[in-house]
C-alpha cells in the first residue's frame, strides 16, 4: 500500500460524488439494511474502486454507499473483508484508510458475533468496550507504516468513550438490551471448538468473531474516533454446544438488526455536525 494507491481510490470516489462525508459505517454479516435508509444514495462497487479488495463472502454485498442519514453525510461499507478470505490485514483495512482520506470524522462498526459470556443471550447486542486480538497479525505491521501515522499506537482506550456513552443512553431510552463487554477477534472461517470457547472465557472474552479489531486498530492509528457493536447470533456454551447453521446466524442477525439500526441512526442524529 502506498499513498498513491489511496490517492487513486479517493480520486475515483470523488469523481462519483463521494464528497465530504462526516461519518463512516461498516456493516457486518447480515446487517446490511441500514443502507436502505440512506437518502440520495450514490453507489460504488468494490470491483470498480482502484486497489479495493473484493468481497468473496456470498452474503456480503461488496459496495460503498454515499448519501445522507439523519442529517449527516455518511459513507457506508455494505460488506467487509476478512483474513479468512485470503487477504492480509493491510487489504482488510484498506477501506478504512480510504474513508478517512475522504474526510470522515467518526467511524461506526457492526458485526455478528458469538456470545461467550453465559449471561449474554442470542439476539442481544453488545457494545464493545475492549478487545483481544487473536488474529496473529497487525494491520500496522508493514515497512512504510510511518508514512501513514505513528508506528507504535496507544490502545489503552480504543473505543471512543463519548460515543459509547451516547449509545448506552439511547439504549436506555429505547428499551434496548445493550450488553457491554470484550470482543475477541479470531481468524476463522471455522467456528470454535469446546476447548477454544473455554479458553476465550478464561482470558476474559464476552463475545467472539472474525472481524472488527483490525479496523479499530487502523482507526486508532488514524486518530479516528470509533465505536463498535456486536449482534450476538449464537450462544457459545461449551458444555451444551450444538452444531451451528450459518443460516440460523443470518436469521438471528436479521431479527436483531432493527435495534442495531435504531442505535446507529440515533447516534448519528446526536453527534455534533
UniProtKB/TrEMBL annotation:
The Gene Ontology biological process annotation of the record reads: nucleoside metabolic process
Role played:
The purine nucleoside phosphorylases catalyze the phosphorolytic breakdown of the N-glycosidic bond in the beta-(deoxy)ribonucleoside molecules, with the formation of the corresponding free purine bases and pentose-1-phosphate.
- Tell me a Gene Ontology molecular-function term this record carries: purine-nucleoside phosphorylase activity
The Nucleoside phosphorylase domain covers 22-269
Question: Which UniProt keywords are given for this protein, alphabetically ordered?
Answer: Glycosyltransferase, Transferase
The coiled-coil regions, if any, are: none
Give the source's domain of life in one word.
Answer: Bacteria
Query: Per the UniProt record, which EC number(s) apply here?
Result: 2.4.2.1
Q: Which InterPro entries match?
A: Nucleoside_phosphorylase_d (IPR000845), Nucleoside_phosphorylase_sf (IPR035994), Pur_Nuc_Pase_Ino/Guo-sp (IPR011270), Purine_phosphorylase (IPR011268)
In which pathway does this enzyme or protein participate? Purine metabolism; purine nucleoside salvage
Q: Which family does it belong to?
A: Belongs to the PNP/MTAP phosphorylase family.
Q: Which GO terms describe its cellular component?
A: cytoplasm
Q: What is this protein called?
A: Purine nucleoside phosphorylase
Indicate whether Transferase appears among the record's keywords.
yes
Keyword field contains Transferase: yes
Amino acid at each position: 500500500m502506498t499513498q498513491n494507491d489511496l490517492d487513486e481510490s479517493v480520486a475515483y470516489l470523488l469523481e462519483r460524488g463521494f464528497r465530504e462525508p462526516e461519518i463512516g459505517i461498516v456493516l457486518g454479516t447480515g446487517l446490511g439494511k441500514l443502507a436502505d435508509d440512506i437518502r440520495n444514495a450514490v453507489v460504488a462497487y468494490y470491483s470498480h474502486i482502484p486497489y479495493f479488495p473484493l468481497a468473496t463472502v456470498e452474503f456480503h454485498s461488496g459496495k460503498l454507499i454515499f448519501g445522507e442519514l439523519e442529517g449527516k453525510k455518511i459513507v457506508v461499507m455494505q460488506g467487509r473483508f476478512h483474513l479468512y478470505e485470503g487477504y492480509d490485514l493491510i487489504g482488510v483495512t484498506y477501506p478504512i484508510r480510504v474513508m478517512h482520506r475522504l474526510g470522515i470524522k467518526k467511524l461506526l462498526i457492526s458485526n455478528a458475533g458469538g456470545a461467550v459470556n453465559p449471561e449474554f443471550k442470542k439476539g442481544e447486542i453488545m457494545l464493545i468496550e475492549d478487545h483481544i486480538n487473536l488474529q496473529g497479525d497487525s494491520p500496522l505491521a508493514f515497512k512504510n507504516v510511518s508514512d501513514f501515522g505513528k508506528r507504535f499506537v496507544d490502545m489503552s482506550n480504543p473505543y471512543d468513550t463519548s460515543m459509547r456513552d451516547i449509545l448506552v443512553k439511547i439504549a436506555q431510552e429505547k428499551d434496548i438490551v445493550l450488553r457491554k463487554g470484550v470482543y475477541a477477534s479470531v481468524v476463522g472461517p471455522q467456528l470454535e471448538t469446546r476447548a477454544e470457547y473455554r479458553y476465550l472465557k478464561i482470558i476474559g472474552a464476552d463475545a467472539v468473531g472474525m472481524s472488527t479489531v483490525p479496523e479499530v486498530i487502523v482507526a486508532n492509528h488514524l486518530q479516528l474516533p470509533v465505536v463498535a457493536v456486536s449482534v450476538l447470533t449464537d450462544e457459545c456454551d461449551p458444555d451444551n454446544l450444538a452444531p451451528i447453521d450459518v443460516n440460523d446466524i443470518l436469521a438471528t442477525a436479521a431479527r436483531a438488526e432493527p435495534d442495531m439500526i435504531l442505535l446507529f441512526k440515533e447516534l448519528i442524529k446526536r453527534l455534533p455536525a
